[in-house]
Design brief:
This protein has 141 residues and is mostly helical. 84% of the residues lie in helices and 0% in strands. Helix 1 packs parallel to helix 3, helix 1 runs antiparallel to helix 4 and helix 2 packs antiparallel against helix 3. It is elongated. The two termini are 22 Å apart.
Length: 141
């Protein structure tokens, strides 16, 4: 393995980990937003936190995807497991997009989902991470 490959792989792991931190925490903020009244200082603070986290997550997602593409296309990393991983990545990008839509609904005061729904929604990236790690480490096919 070349040094360049290892650097790209390391950076991919760092940005994926950082992006996942946001994917774990933003829906947790949504849980709390769903539990507070539609007006007030607590809601304003949670919305501020969610907006800042959302803006921070954007470049992390882009860098994670960019370094992943570099590994895949530039170094020929792949196999059957890679196709499954790419499917999970596409689902995660959809989840990321859904988080943005949910944030905009909260900002407009249009979110009517319960905190319980958001607790379940918050578990989806955990499942995606588990599947992705198994695919990358075990390479079952």
């Amino acid at each position: 393995m070349s040094t360049g490959y290892l650097w790209v792989k390391a950076l991919h792991i760092v940005f994926v980990t950082s992006w996942f931190a946001g994917l774990f925490y933003l829906p947790r903020i949504f849980v709390n937003l769903a539990m507070v009244p539609d007006a007030g200082a607590e809601r304003d603070r949670l919305l501020l936190m969610a907006r800042k986290l959302w803006r921070f997550m954007q470049p992390l997602m882009l860098l994670a995807v960019a370094f992943g593409l570099w590994l895949w296309l530039g170094y020929g990393v792949g196999g059957g497991w890679m196709h499954a991983k790419l499917a999970v990545v596409v689902l995660l990008l959809g989840y990321h997009h859904a988080c943005g839509r949910l944030l905009r609904r909260f900002e407009r005061g249009e979110s009517r989902r319960s905190h319980v729904w958001f607790r379940w929604f918050n578990e989806l990236p955990v499942i995606a991470l588990l599947v992705t790690v198994v695919l990358v480490v075990v390479k079952p096919f």
